[in-house]
Amino acid sequence: MIKRFDFSPIIRTGAVVRDLPYTDGMPAPFILKDNSFVLQMDDKTRVYGLGETMRGINKRGWIYESFCTDEPFHTEEKRSVYGAHNFLIIDGEERFGAFFDIPGKITFDIGYTDSDTITITPEKFALDLYIITADSLKAIVGEFRALIGKSYIPPKWAFGYGQSRWGYVTEEDIQKCADSYRDAGIPLDMLYLDIDYMDSFKDFTVHPERFPDLKAFSAKMKERGVRLIPIIDAAVKKEEGYSVYDEGHEKGYFCKDENGEDFVVGVWPGKSLLPDFLNPEAAAWFGKKYKALTDLGIEGFWNDMNEPALFYSERGFNNAAEQIKNLGSARLDALSFFGVRDTLAKLQNNPDDYKSFYHNTPEGKINHYDVHNLYGYHMTKSAYDALCELRDEPSLLFSRASYIGAHRCGGIWTGDNHSWWSHILQSLQQMPGLNMCGFLYSGSDIGGFNGNCTRDLLIRWLSFALFTPLMRNHAAFGTRSQEAFAFGDTEVFRHIITLRYRLIPYLYSEFVKAVENDAMYFRPLSFDYESDETAATVEDQLMVGDSLMIAPVYVQNTVSRHIYLPEKMTMIRMHEGDISTEELSQGRHNVSVPLGDVVFFAKSPIPFAKPAMNTTELDWENLEQLGVR
Ligand code: MIG
To answer: FRET partner for 481 with CA separation of 20 to 30 A, picked from 87, 144, 518, 611?
Structure first.
């Protein structure tokens, strides 16, 4: 059952697809205290959800803040990352789900200030609240997901493996990467183009020397089963003569300052404007621009910098420059020097800037800060709506920033992680929360984005990520190469990525089933074994679809791990490409997992395909069975 409570929201966010009547009275079991929703927890209370946040599957013991943020360090103390996903389930004396539908900032203190108290505080008290009760954790998720509408289903080929790197600049770089994969016999379906494919970082342009004929090149790649997936950034370069700027400026499609002038920000292209995605006309206009690339044979995109990330605003920069100039010949003592440094650091993603521009929405002019968390969602929606018009086939689309609602339009990737062992586990722990909020097509940058990857880290990361719907290896500019062919002997990588392809018929059909049933593809063990107290404390294993459980290794130099089996299962082991199985009883086990072996568990038999070099070659018909008891 869903009850909706009215706290005078300032705008319809678009998150829900059903218009439920409001319920009078208090949103029990929460009590209202000082503009917060408060609830006491007992020792056994567990909390799930909150989508893309840091820390564990059970969210208890930390504080989280929904405010879409370009956060390059995913460390434990961070409260905000790129998404704003305000749905959680409280599994305590009373068990219920709660969705705080609010486009601005909201804080979830889940036993942080006081370890037994949940305090949820919207910065501006204007929201819709949905309280959901049902007789199981899965059923609560099902009710919520029916409320927010069906999740995005990508094309089948998007279940293949993709390679990306911020640092591939030219057609030759991409060609070389494709050749290296082919020469190593490692399957591949997607190669990603990062910002350098553009001409001066201008959206919807292609650099004339780096990619002299992208149409021919993308056709050539597709012949080998590889699709090119370009990035699109939110901000548009301010440059007269660049048609996207000229049109947007003339039609008033960019966000404006309080005087109605285009609000100028600094991002990759230098001085830029923010398309007003909350204005439906502007969103439709921007979406149509993707045609420039679909006309070249492009079938998928990733949308970046749409929190929106700002390096600076023109206004903030000028103020800072003035401040520094005023120090002039004065003696620059340590304090004023650090002051200057702080002034410059604060230019980036400054809340004052977010408060300084406006959207022209159907509900009137709205300050960006109050609807900040909707920006990435509406960028993704603009692309999705347009791609549905432009193309007959489904397109691949995923975004960095998001709000619930965006799950109907695309997937998300979890942004700029690091080549750290802890980020394998972090990625695993993010998946169930994301799935609860409707984001099923998701994954992390395999091998880690920032920092330098090592061979063993990549092997272990792939061994987990071969189960994530989005399977993409991506790295930052200037970091060590981390492609599957970059660490010498490629055999082990070939075996792991080939295993992914052999599992695609299972993974894809479980994914589609989860979408159709408003269910989760990745689940914590506690969702399937509700009365099992041990299962409820497991933070490093997941159920994948109806039949599988995974328990990846995420610690450097370990070759075994402790595993809890809530019931009897078949252990499936891939060793040098060969598969073996072994029955394991319910309970705790210590399983040997040498580097390069992939071990996972089956409750029931699953389909298993023959090896293939890409999804086009994959034989979806003649399947074996794996894990027969
Ligand atoms: O400021 O396009 O998260 O995946 O490689 C960095 C360059 C901008 C951030 C994305 C990352 C991408 C990078 N982008």
So the answer is: 611
